């Protein structure tokens, strides 16, 4: 499973993209379950972005979800943090 996170916005207005391939990871099953929960979680529609907040696009294989701070579920936040940290 290929998981890609793109984060934009924030105070500096920059963009950061990171990808994680679960295929060769020891925690593969946990990450894939987390990704499934993150994509199936609530994604509030029509929420107004907060000043200097981040916007996210999470792509898991061919599925895509667009999210904004602070309107993230715990699973979405954990997946974002894991993917961005793995690419650092």
**What is the approximate shape?**
globular
How can the largest sheet be summarized?
4 strands, antiparallel
Structural class: alpha+beta
Number of strands: 4
* H/I helix tally: 2
CA-to-CA gap between the ends? 19 Å
Biggest β-sheet: strands ordered side by side in the sheet: 2-1-3-4
Order of helices and strands: EEHEEH
What is the count of structural domains?
A: 1
Uncertain segments of ≥5 residues (pLDDT<50)?
A: none
| Mean residue pLDDT | 89
Short description:
The chain is an alpha+beta fold.
How is the secondary structure organized here?
Elements: E1 2-9, E2 14-21, H1 28-40, E3 54-60, E4 63-68, H2 74-86
Antiparallel strand pairs: 1-2, 1-3, 3-4
Helix pairs in contact: 1-2
Task: Please provide a written account of the structure.
It is a single chain. With about 90 residues, the chain is of the alpha+beta class. The protein has one domain (about 1-85). Helices cover about 30% and strands about 35% of the residues. It has helices at about 30-40, 75-85; strands at about 1-10, 15-20, 55-60, 65-70. A 4-stranded antiparallel β-sheet has the order 2-1-3-4, with helices on one face. Strand 3 (about 55-60) and strand 4 form a beta hairpin. Helix 1 crosses helix 2. The chain is globular. The model has no long low-confidence stretch (mean pLDDT about 90).
């Amino acid at each position: 499973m290929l998981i890609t996170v793109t984060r934009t916005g924030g105070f500096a207005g920059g963009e950061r993209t990171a990808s994680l391939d679960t295929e060769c990871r020891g925690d593969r099953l946990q990450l894939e379950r987390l990704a499934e929960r993150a994509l199936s979680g609530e994604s509030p529609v029509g929420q107004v972005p907060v000043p200097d907040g981040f916007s996210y696009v999470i792509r898991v294989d061919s599925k895509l979800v667009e999210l904004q701070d602070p309107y993230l579920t715990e699973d979405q936040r954990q997946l974002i943090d894991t993917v961005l940290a793995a690419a650092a």
